[in-house]
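FAQ: What does the model actually see?

It sees only this:
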Amino acid sequence: MSNSPVREVGDADGNHVYRRITLRLIPFIFICYLFNYLDRVNVGFAKLQMLDALSFSETVYGLGAGIFFIGYVLCGLPSNLALNRFGPTRWIGLMMITWGMFSTCLLFVTTPVEFYVLRFLTGMAEAGFFPGIVLYLSRWYPNQRRGRIMALFMSAIPVSGLLGGPFSGWILNHFAAGQGGMAGWQWMFLIQGLPTVALGVLAFFLLCDKVEDAHWLTPEQRQRVKTDITQDELNRPVHGKSSVASVLTMPFIWILGFIYFCIQSGVYAINFWLPSIIKSLGFSDALVIGWISAVPYLMAGVFMLLVGRSADLRDERRWHLVVPMLMGATGLIIAANFASVPLVAILGLTIATMGALTSLPMFWPLPTALLSASVAAGGLALINSIGQMAGFLSPYLVGWIKDQTGSTTMALYSLAALTIVGSLVALRISRQSAAKVGATA
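And it is asked to produce this:
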């Protein structure tokens, strides 16, 4: 792609300049987030061999999968404040190099304690990446364009499931003989972790901190974006200081965090347990499990892009969030109700994945439209941290219930109920209520 500025002609609606920004930024950010998500959830496939090889229980796995999010939650807010201070380019690149190294080192795990420590450190390193990218994109796109952009960016999640499932299954099978003195699950951590380190290095060269640094835009294009973002900022009702204390005392941020927690509870249950649930339906070959697990993610990717486009065209956010949440809950109930019928159970998991994953990009335009620039850095990080607590509680809850009952049925019912509660809270969110809360924050 050329870096030379192109003078726009007759771009009254700004489509040309934002298309140029999208082509420049989104492909690289998409790839980074794809590996971010893959590094976060690939333990779901490693589990197929790892538990037997290391004699780990389901509870040990659930705790190890979930403890990642303790580190994530603890470091989310300070990491995003540091990103706001030192600049996205350096901070995002450094985070990627660090978590890529920790994720790769999981291949050396031999005890539960080592598993817990490395997952915790990986969570600490990843903490600021996602809210940092959301903040970064809010500096390039006004709110009315963010639904589609967030869907494009976050479609990396279903793509990571679509490609990661078969790829992880192939690695587990191909290296099952112990080539190089390592088991298949160890090769998986190595092959999927090292590219993240390389992407972190590239981030220093491919990202620029702000619109003023984008020399691949003309002066007119840069001014157009700055004007749009400035006007967007004036329309945000929640203002304040981006200190830890001020952000922690804003009730509206905690309400948004609760909604995001409900969404993520279903998302992480699917991400961490989908391979195991498919295996429990009678499928044993890792590659077959990988291909079956890819189907829900394929459908979710298409659905996510369609809903994102619809949200921007209609300039409507709440129902485009609430309907996918209810859809996710319905899918979990179907999967739990028909656990003995593989085809119907997989259909339920597909519906659940479509709804849960689509809720993610439909949620984030809401806080970015409501929080001013001074609040956004800390506010987005706190919302994300609250939501990511589900990443600890959800896998651990599923693992504990499975150990106690021998199945995941009750866990799926519980997660469906939580998602329904979150959708009802989201339904009550309005710009007027945000302005009222923001005025007293």
